[in-house]
Write a structure and sequence with these properties.
Rhopdopsin 7-helix transmembrane proteins, 3 strands, globular
Length: 320
C-alpha cells in the first residue's frame, strides 16, 4: 500500500509519452515511410508463408507447421508496436495511458517470449529430422507439435503476466512520464520508477534467463548433435542441403537472441537508453522481415509452392 501512494499523489493523468526519434520534419517523413514499408513487408511476407503452408498439402509437415506459427507470432508482435509507433512519428506525440502501456508491454513480452521458445522447438525438430530421420514421423506427431506450441505460448503468457503485473505496481515519477523508447518495454519503463527496483530487476533477469539463456543453450546442444550428424553424412549433396536448412534457422536465432540478450541481460549500469532503442529496432523489424525472406528465398519447397500458387491464379486469366 505504501508503494502505491506516490502514484495517487501525483498530479496529472496517469499516462506516458514516447520520446521522438527526430524533430526535423523531413527526417520524420523519411522514418515514417521507411518503417511503414518495413511493416508492410513483414505483414506481406509472413502472411504469404501462412497462406502457402495452409493451402498446400505438401507443406503440412512439422517444420512448416512451426514456421507457420512463427510467422503468426512475427505479425502479431510487430503489430502490437508499429502502428502506435508510426502514429507518433507522423503527428504530435500521443500519450498512452497507464493501462495501455501495461497492455502493450504484456503482449509484446508474451509474443516475443513465445517467439524465442518456438525457435528452440524448431531446433529440436531439425535435430530429430537430421539425427533420427527414420523415426522422425513417429516422434514428431501432430499431437506432439501442437502440445509444444501450446506449451511455448502458455509459458510465455504466464511469465509475461507476472512480470508486467509486478512492474505496474511501482510508482512512476514526474508529471510527464517520458519513455526514451518507441514502445512500453520493460527496461525503459523501469527507469521511470521512483522506488527501489532491485527486486524487479532481479525478476527481469530471471525471466530473461528462462526466455533467452535456457532456450539458446538447448538450441546450441541441438546444433552440436546436428553438426556431428551432418559431418558424418556420406552424400555431399545431403550435407549441403542440411547445412543450408540449418544455417537459415541459425541466422534468425543469433539475431533474435543476441539482440534481446543485449537489452535484457546486460548489467543495468552498462546499459544506454539510446542503445537499447536502436537494438530494439532490430528485433522489431529486422528479424520478422528475415523470417519470410530466409525461409522462402532459401527453401525450394516454399518457393515451388509460391510459384505454383501464382501460376495457378494467373492461368485462368491468361486462358481468357
Amino acid at each position: 500500500m505504501v508503494a502505491r501512494s506516490p502514484v495517487l499523489n501525483q498530479s496529472g493523468p496517469a499516462e506516458f509519452v514516447f520520446r521522438v526519434f527526430t524533430t526535423v520534419p523531413e527526417f520524420q517523413a523519411l522514418l515514417f515511410l521507411l518503417f511503414l514499408l518495413l511493416y508492410l513487408m513483414i505483414l506481406g511476407g509472413n502472411s504469404a508463408i501462412i497462406w502457402v503452408v495452409r493451402t498446400h498439402s505438401s507443406l503440412r509437415t512439422p517444420m512448416y507447421f512451426f514456421l507457420c506459427n512463427l510467422s503468426f507470432l512475427e505479425i502479431s508482435y510487430t503489430s502490437v508496436v508499429v502502428p502506435l509507433m508510426l502514429s507518433n512519428i507522423w503527428g504530435a506525440r500521443k500519450p498512452i495511458p497507464l493501462a495501455g502501456c501495461g497492455a502493450q508491454m504484456f503482449f509484446f513480452v508474451s509474443l516475443g517470449s513465445a517467439d524465442c521458445f518456438l525457435l528452440a522447438v524448431m531446433a529440436y525438430d531439425r535435430y530429430v529430422a537430421i539425427c533420427h530421420p527414420l523415426r522422425y514421423t513417429l516422434i514428431m506427431t501432430q499431437k506432439l507439435c501442437i502440445q509444444m506450441v501450446a506449451c511455448a505460448a502458455g509459458l510465455a503468457l504466464l511469465l509475461s503476466l507476472q512480470l508486467t503485473a509486478l512492474i505496474f505496481t511501482l510508482p512512476f515519477c514526474g508529471h510527464r512520464r517520458e519513455i526514451n523508447h518507441f514502445l512500453c518495454d520493460v527496461p525503459p519503463v523501469l527507469r521511470l520508477a521512483c522506488a527501489d527496483i532491485r527486486v524487479h530487476q532481479a525478476v527481469l533477469y530471471v525471466v530473461g534467463i528462462l526466455v533467452l539463456t535456457i532456450p539458446f543453450l538447448l538450441i546450441c546442444v541441438s546444433y552440436l548433435f546436428i553438426t556431428w550428424a551432418i559431418v558424418r553424412m556420406r552424400s555431399a549433396e545431403g550435407r549441403r542441403r542440411a547445412f543450408s536448412t540449418c544455417s537459415s534457422h541459425l541466422t534468425v536465432v543469433l539475431l533474435q537472441y543476441g539482440c534481446c540478450s543485449l537489452v535484457y541481460l546486460r548489467p543495468r549500469s552498462s546499459t544506454s537508453e539510446d542503445e537499447d532503442r536502436q537494438i530494439a529496432l532490430v528485433y522489431t523489424f529486422v528479424t520478422p522481415l528475415l523470417n519470410p525472406l530466409i525461409y522462402t528465398l532459401r527453401n525450394k519447397d516454399v518457393k515451388g509452392a509460391l510459384k505454383n500458387a501464382v501460376l495457378g491464379k494467373a492461368a485462368p486469366s491468361g486462358a481468357n
